[in-house]
Design goal:
This protein is an all-alpha fold. Helices cover 76% and strands 0% of the residues. Among the domains are: 193 residues, Growth Hormone, Chain: A (Up-down Bundle), CATH 1.20.1250.20; 57 residues; 51 residues, no CATH class.
Length: 529
């Protein structure tokens, strides 16, 4: 017993003085790879919204109507949503470096096609090409972080990626508006040439070549690939164009709905029969990852919904031009820049559940503040809410990023990244579709309610109309003025409804925070099950 105890004590003493194993650190090539992935994701997310403020000018120059011009934005989003979930399979097929080089090169070429477009079909071809190639750049940035950085340095990479995803849609309208006002709308696309050249150089220097596995073409889940393209592509177009086309009274929307339904059936069959499904929906069975996907969908609705709704309010109610409205939207990006140096520390030491809860509460408060708008509100009414929205967004996105990437083993990081980013963009598509539906219906409802409250025989109404007729030079002008006033008030009330809905939506997903798992520092990623 004595000798055993002495032996144990000696081993303990030796262990105490034995130096701890060195923690692996990322080398310069790994950080250059992260920089390349981040730059590619930024370029792709920026181009989602960079044309928003330039659309009227672009439509006029290429001879497109207002309805046709919306396809300039929709074509990009549809193509991107389809390809994002496929990025994991494409990475395994071609190798990460080859995939990114092809995507970056083609994205730059398609950007030039958009910049020199003189017709709507040419522009749509360019935007579809941008969407397909840019969509591959977003989730692969998360894959680089998960596979090239050690665990203790991943928070830094996640912070860089998260800020680009947040800033891209926010500053896109500002850059596009400034270029359109001061140079030309063409440069909203030409700006991608130097960025693309820089990205390609970084990829060549930083990422090692991986052998392509073209044999996977024979084993591919072709049912799943076709189902994903038809399902998500058809659904996105239906959501984007449904209200404008009067939903199922339009044969086109009816046909696309059937195509989308068939696509999702094919995707489900592929999940059940394929040895290696093209997208691993089984990851959603993990409570943490499934909860993250739901929450990031709602956050996507907030990011894209507010970046669309606020400029619309400022343009339609306050009389702002596109650049002025874009500057108000840009305020949400200020906290991202200020908090970026601190996010790796926060991710490392703050509990995931507490951080996400804090972010969601701040987002709900920011939307609630905007329910106090009036028809006299200007950009100043959005300053506090936009700054709060920026803080809430960066907390939620940073920590959901971390939760998503830690929910799966590194070999499934590509599939998880595809699902995560597709959910965020799908949330944006749902938000834009929902805004169109709600705006159309609620403006009509509020207009009727206001009209019902105005009695034609009321003394106050008659006195007001008499005064307006005398001031405007006739009864007809007075009625037109009253109609415009009712429309402005109804539209303002509709925007208030939209912000109420966003507030409620954020609160509704808060219980999912309970499914997030705080992981100890240095722990290996938890496998999906």
């Amino acid at each position: 017993m004595v000798s055993t105890r002495a032996s144990s004590t000696g081993e303990a003493d030796a262990a105490a003085v034995r130096p701890a194993p060195a923690i692996a650190r990322a080398d310069a090539a790994a950080w250059l790879a992260v920089a390349a992935g981040t730059l590619g994701a930024f370029m792709a997310t920026l181009d989602i919204s960079i044309v928003n403020s330039s659309l009227p000018t672009i439509q006029g120059e290429i001879g497109a109507s207002g309805t046709e011009g919306t396809w300039i934005a929709t074509a990009y989003l549809v193509a991107e949503i389809v390809v994002i979930p496929l990025s994991g399979w494409l990475e395994r097929l071609l190798g990460l470096r080859t995939l990114l080089l092809i995507a970056a090169t083609l994205f730059t070429i398609f950007s030039m096609v958009c910049g020199i477009s003189t017709t709507l079909p040419m522009m749509i071809v360019g935007r579809v090409g941008q969407g397909f190639t840019g969509g591959a750049l977003i989730p692969t940035a998360m894959t680089i972080i998960a596979t090239r950085l050690p665990r203790d340095q991943q928070p830094i990479g996640n912070a860089l990626f998260g800020c680009t995803v947040i800033l891209g849609p926010v500053i896109g309208p500002v850059i596009g508006g400034w270029l359109t006002e001061n140079v030309s709308w063409h440069y909203a696309f030409f700006i991608n040439l130097p960025v693309g050249a820089t990205l390609i150089t970084l990829l060549l220097v930083a990422l090692p070549h991986q052998r392509s596995r073209l044999d996977q073409l024979r084993q591919a889940d072709w049912l799943g690939i076709a189902g994903l393209a038809f399902g998500l592509g058809g659904l996105t177009v239906v959501l984007e164009e449904g209200e404008r086309e009067q939903w199922f009274s339009s044969p086109t929307i009816g046909l696309l709905s059937v195509i989308s339904a068939v696509g999702f059936v094919l995707l489900a069959i592929g999940q059940l029969t394929a040895r290696k499904p093209v997208i691993r929906l089984a990851l959603l069975r993990d409570r943490q990852f499934g909860s993250v996907v739901v929450m990031v969908t709602v956050v996507g609705m907030v990011i894209y919904g507010t970046s669309y709704t606020i400029p619309q309010f400022l343009s339609g109610i306050a009389g702002y031009n596109s650049l002025q409205a874009g500057e108000i939207v840009l305020l949400a990006g200020v906290p991202s820049l200020l908090l970026m140096p601190f996010t790796p520390f926060l991710i490392r030491f703050v509990d995931i559940r507490a951080a996400v809860a804090f972010g969601l509460v701040i987002l709900a408060i920011s939307a609630f503040l905007e329910t106090g708008l009036t028809s006299l509100s200007t950009g100043e009414a959005f300053v506090d809410s936009q700054l709060l929205r920026g803080v809430g967004t960066i907390f939620v996105m940073m920590f959901l990023n971390q939760a998503a990437i830690r929910s799966v083993p590194p070999e499934l990081a590509g599939d998880a990244a595809g699902l995560y980013n597709a959910a965020r963009n799908l949330g944006g598509s749902l938000a834009l579709a929902g805004i169109a539906v709600i705006q159309d219906q609620r403006v009509w409802l509020h207009s009727r309610r206001i009209e019902e409250s105005l009695s034609a025989n009321g003394v106050d109404v008659q006195a007001y109309m008499a005064g307006q007729a005398q001031m405007l030079g006739g009864q007809a002008a007075a009625y037109r003025s009253l109609g415009n006033t009712i429309q402005v008030q109804a539209l303002t009330m509709t925007y208030i409804d939209l912000f109420w809905i966003l507030s409620v939506g954020i609160v509704a997903v808060m219980p999912l925070i309970l499914f997030l798992r705080p992981l100890p520092r240095g722990a290996k990623p938890v496998a999906s099950h």
